[in-house]
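Intended use. Records like the one below are meant for learning the mapping from a protein sequence to its folded structure. Do not use them to infer anything beyond what is encoded.
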Amino acid sequence: MLTFKQFLDEKHCWKGYVKRGMKKKGGRMVNNCVKEDTEDRPILGVIEDITIDGVGNCTAKIDSGNEAYNVLHGVDVVIGNKEFTCTTIDNKQIRKPLIDTIQINIGSGIKEERPVTTFDIILRGVTYKNVPFSISDRAENEEKVLVGEPFVRELNALIDVDKE
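Structure written out for the chain above:
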């Protein structure tokens, strides 16, 4: 069990409560912890089936530790002015508009520049339009798609780590 000081210092909430930003209390900023309501929230497993427009059906790792864009496997990436091309899952060639680029620290001070684009996806039977993805070589990863924390938060979803 957390002490009150740990609760404040570690920036998280008591069991059964979730953090929804910060609030001012007693002249200082503290966590705004609200009772967790799970009734209407989707519950995702760590691994989920996903359909990505132009790529097809695949499995995705749902990763609450990834605070950047979602990631789609891609190699032989060629970035142009307004678009990029790459080879992705099942050796499909894609050409997509370049929405942005992101620089990711992949460890040991090594940074990688990745193109960012959007895809329409289907997750759990629901279609989501213009979902941002960065493109990176995920050949060494079991799942070629990573769904990150910002999208999970947008869905207001919970991740059940026992569910795959």
